[in-house]
Write a structure and sequence with these properties.
- The protein is of the alpha/beta class.
- The protein has one domain: Glutaredoxin (3-Layer(aba) Sandwich), CATH 3.40.30.10.
- 34% of the residues lie in helices and 26% in strands.
- The protein has 4 helices and 5 strands, in the order βαβαβαββα.
Length: 102
């Protein structure tokens, strides 16, 4: 699967109404660790289709960052059945992300 772009207008449909878990990466273009984790998320998306991976640019979608209490980036939130299941902060290895989404 491919990493998808989520935003305020498609968040409910894409993330909250998803029939599978969704890993959401809250990021910004100026964030160094966000640039580091981007290819890791792409690789994870290529190897699994059990979880949808979405990115939310916090500069363009501040309301979502506020709603989900994103204080630092990257913040990764795993949504299951339209609810926050767990959070992870900072750049992560692919092995760490594999464990996180299980």
């Amino acid at each position: 699967m491919k990493v998808v772009e989520a935003n305020v207008s498609n968040f409910k449909e894409l993330v909250l109404k998803s029939d599978k878990p969704v890993l959401v990466d809250f990021w910004a273009p100026w964030c160094g660790p966000c640039k580091i984790i981007a290819p890791v998320l792409d690789a994870l998306a290529d190897e699994t289709d059990s979880v949808l991976i979405a990115k939310i640019n916090i500069d363009e979608n501040q309301a979502l960052a506020v709603e989900y209490h994103v204080r630092s980036i990257p913040t990764l939130i795993l949504f299951k059945d339209s609810n926050v299941d767990k959070k992870l902060l900072g750049a992560q290895s692919i092995d760490s992300l594999r464990k996180f989404i299980q």
